[in-house]
Amino acid sequence: MEEEQGYKFGHEMKKHFQMRLDLIPLNHGGYGAVPKCVSLNQKQYMEEMEFCPDIFFEFKLREYWKASIEEVSLFVGTKSKDTVLVNNATTGINTVLKSLKYNTGEVILFTNCTYHAVKNTCQQTSVLANGVEAVHMSLVFPIKHEDDIVNQYAEYLDAHKNVKIAVIDHITSPTAMLMPVSRIASVCHDRGVLVVVDGAHCPGQLDLNIERLGVDFYTGNLHKWGFSARGCAVLWIDPKFHNVIRPLITSHHWNTGKPMIEFTTQGTNNYSSYQSVPQAIKFYKDIGGHEAIDKYNRSLLAKAVDYLTEKWGTCKLDIPASMEAPFLRLVKLPPIAGFSASTDDSERLRLKLLEEYKLIQYIFPVQGELFIRLSCQVYNEISDYESLGDAIQELSKRT
């Protein structure tokens, strides 16, 4: 455990979060965890709104929006004029794909590792656009080198000249792969293909500089690894597309000649998750910032993976070390009687581990085998993963 400005990493960090202490949280990547100080700050904004909504919405909202955007931009490496906030990364992807104009026969490209909600977004957009196709490209394991992925994109795009935009995961949600986004984006742009990045897991997990990635659009959740209240995500739009991308909701600032301002007000709503973002970023910095968090989480996750693969006699997902997400990792489960490598059985197993062992975790099938996606955050200790190891081992011995 590490001491950072009065914060001790490990189980003692749980006192700074609102979480059930009887559960063992191993799925931070699912929904994040909100620090108490952020929840308190959010509540203060909600109370201010209720005390006098007229003042809040008509005179304060833009001021608070500007303050949040400035903090977020510094956090993720963007200019504030190109940056807006949306509810979540899925909303960000929807916003981009449904703002673009398509010609008949054009394609929206995603992969088999794309987040399910984003797959649905691609498919629905193709239906709404009429004559547009949503196509997935299959990424197959093992992957031995980043070049394999980059070359696969190049070969696919060379063979399919009608791709309008590629949806690229920065960190794939189900398989926890850190994709070589800049290299893929270069391949896409060389062939006239736009790039939108789903960085749902990246703010707070990666030391981001979005503008240097060389993409057209980028969206990422702040409520997963950035400690913000739910739901809150950043959406960065390259300046050349400011007049193209519009929020999903048309409201007061439509047709004002200031398209990015349209995102500030989406009707009367509770914007407190956006307004409390500066407090979330402050907490992130106060506990040590990216350097300290990264050091602790990487080290603990490596120990957890070694412990579980040895205990279960299995292996982690076969990808290059350069493509392993810093705080997320896939480990194959041993055979467990009564549970096949299906989505339904993985959900049954997740529920069993929750009800019998108090373990919060994420399990799903990959190429006919069940894997568990391990998350590591500063409130975890190796004993959490030892509890998981014992539970799975006990279940694997049942007949």
General description of the model:
- The structure is a single chain.
- The chain has 12 helices and 14 strands.
- The strands form 4 sheets. A 7-stranded mixed sheet has the order 4-10-9-8-7-5-6, with helices on both faces. It has a 3-stranded antiparallel sheet with strand order 11-14-13.
- Strand 1 and strand 2 form a beta hairpin.
- Helix 2 packs antiparallel against helix 3 and helix 6 runs parallel beside helix 7.
- The longest helix has 24 residues.
- The chain starts with a strand and ends with a helix.
Layout of SSEs?
Layout: E1 3-4, E2 7-8, E3 24-25, H1 28-31, H2 36-51, H3 53-76, E4 83-86, H4 89-97, E5 107-111, H5 116-129, E6 133-137, H6 146-159, E7 163-169, H7 181-190, E8 194-198, E9 217-221, E10 233-237, H8 272-275, H9 277-286, H10 289-312, E11 328-332, H11 343-357, E12 359-360, E13 362-366, E14 369-375, H12 382-397
Parallel strand pairs: 3-12, 5-6, 5-7, 7-8, 8-9
Antiparallel strand pairs: 1-2, 4-10, 9-10, 11-14, 13-14
Helix pairs in contact: 2-3, 4-5, 6-7, 10-12
> How far from one another are the termini?
39 Å
User: Which structural class is indicated by helix and strand composition?
Assistant: alpha/beta
Strand arrangement, largest sheet? 4-10-9-8-7-5-6
Largest beta-sheet characterization? 7 strands, mixed
Percentage beta strand = 15-25%
Q: Give the SSE order as H and E letters.
A: EEEHHHEHEHEHEHEEEHHHEHEEEH
What average pLDDT do the residues reach? 95
Total beta-strand segments: 14
Number of continuous helical runs: 12
Helical percentage:
40-55%
Low-confidence stretches: none
Sum up the overall morphology in one term: globular
Radius of gyration, Cα only, in angstroms?
22 Å
